[in-house]
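Hi there. Long-time user, first ticket. I'm pasting a complex I've been working with (about 662 residues overall). I'd like to know whether the download I got is complete or cut off, because the file seemed smaller than I expected. Thanks.
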Amino acid sequence: MASMNDIARRAGVSIATVSRVLNNSGSVNEATRARILKAIKDLKYQPSRVAKRLRSKSVSSNLLGVLIPDIQNPFYVDVLRGIEDIAYTNNYAIIMCNYSQDEKKEKLYLEILQSEAIDGLIAAPANEQDVQLKKMVREGLPVVCVDRGLQDEDVDIVVVDNREGAFKAVEHLIKLGRRRIAYISGLQTIPSSRYREKGYLDALSSYQIPVVPELIKHGDSKYEGGLVLCEELLNLPEPPDAVFTGNNLITLGALESIHKHQLRIPDDIAIVGFDDMIWSSSLNPSLTAVRQPAYDIGQRACELLLQRISEPGRACIKMILKTELIVRRST
Amino acid sequence: MASMNDIARRAGVSIATVSRVLNNSGSVNEATRARILKAIKDLKYQPSRVAKRLRSKSVSSNLLGVLIPDIQNPFYVDVLRGIEDIAYTNNYAIIMCNYSQDEKKEKLYLEILQSEAIDGLIAAPANEQDVQLKKMVREGLPVVCVDRGLQDEDVDIVVVDNREGAFKAVEHLIKLGRRRIAYISGLQTIPSSRYREKGYLDALSSYQIPVVPELIKHGDSKYEGGLVLCEELLNLPEPPDAVFTGNNLITLGALESIHKHQLRIPDDIAIVGFDDMIWSSSLNPSLTAVRQPAYDIGQRACELLLQRISEPGRACIKMILKTELIVRRST
DNA sequence: TTTTATAATGAAAACGTTATCATGAAATCC
DNA sequence: GGATTTCATGATAACGTTTTCATTATAAAA
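Hi, the file is complete. Here it is re-exported in full:
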């Protein structure tokens, strides 16, 4: 690969001048510029992003980091797509790290991202008091949190109103006459899981429905978790007549379990899930779900990040997007 | 962030010695080593991957590129997970580029990857004669292709037997008595689409079933494509009694369309899709599908890549994995 | 004409590594 | 006891950029 040096030599100038035309900074004679431009074309010169990155923190190397908990979850895929679309149109590349809900892996990836000298980071940390991430924020790395925040740390954040979304879902079930409503939660370390639980509890109490502890299950935010926890619920002496699931993978696991038990949805048991998916209407039966604007979350987050990169001093923004209850045949 | 220089200063040695203990190369006095190690710990030193990368192509900078056509497709997500797991255990980070089936975007990403000085690349190129990718291969970048190859270029490749997979799917439909079997294809520029079509045609001819051109639809490998093309099929004066869909997004689109028409599956129309998904059994009805070992594909590909990086000269390997027909209720 | 801007360019430092060479001291060999 | 090897270390070039400073030549101002 041709370097600036090659260009300089071929055009008979110094690399300084080449740099000047490359970044059109400073003034350079038209003839020289033309000569350099030609050399660049001839040698198919491509600047080394690595060298750029090394050279100066000040100049943007156009690389963003994205740290997500679970690439298998379509929600994060959509967030990622949103991020990526904005990044792409602004000429940023992204280095994507999926820590699979493994905090050790998360730590390693944060180290790597730091050592790759990224310009900024969009992260959904494993938990709210992630010391390493906090440190990076404090050291001045532009960071935007998505889906979950960072306790006691002033940082841009894009989330949805999880409590309200859950409330609407459960309220919907109640209004349909359901009384034994179960909740299958994701990881309790994740704030959104707790907010969703809060929404669930608030809805029950709003309608004076007693909370039955054995109807609340805490799992791991994954398909298998949804499967086994729903299994437990269905094996209860007095099984629930409705279940509210904490995220889309849990929902799919729960569906699997209900089908295994040959129960009719919604006759025997109703189900409403957090997170809508493109194929939710093709599920058996089509799924009532709380839709998060995942793609938007990604876009907003990336916009905020680019803003912060160009204006590091600006005040932090906490963006709370709305959820939407989409009623289909499962309730 | 502390640099080697800071360490050297604090330990009262030169950076050369620091480098030596860091890479334990050369010999260094035990006492000095201890002093340096302490300094490293004290200053929380982290090597700059960027500087490493810049310094020498020879030493591995532990960064891989992954170029995929469509992150929305769960198949590629699984491939990605396979890649990532192997990369992670071998201490590689990955820079993930999703070109969304947009060749312009693909080109840009290839440039970026090159200029990021990655150690190797796993790619599913938009088409088999991708000149840019070919050039990169020829220039010595270790590359492994997944899901699709590169024409006239000797390169490692991991694919499944698409023709056979499609054949089995269609044969299954035929054996169930279906005769008007439609095929909704993905992008024809993608080899796998063509191989799947070949399998479809081979199966028909094996059982002396005439090919009906209007039952073969070519689309864009996306959800919307599946939706509108299936729509067209169902609006035919003589609609099909079965449909074989070319990938998972197409399948979901087709399902949506069939449901819209209020047709019963499989009574009115049977459907079998290429690509199984974790929630395929939760679809309405549970879906008969050709399963690709996506996660394995990713793992194998990454293993091949790491091999090639450490041994650039070794002969190219073409790995063809088996598909599996999973029969459920949609047929 | 002398001074002063301005335009056009180059030299060189810096970023954080790795790797080569050089140097001195201690240890081993014959 | 001189020659040679081994150990321990440092200086420095190189990777490919950006940026600061210096230098010349020319144009404008006095």
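A couple of notes from our side: Residues 63-158+294-319 of chain B form a domain with the Rossmann fold fold (CATH 3.40.50.2300). Chain B has twelve helices and twelve strands.
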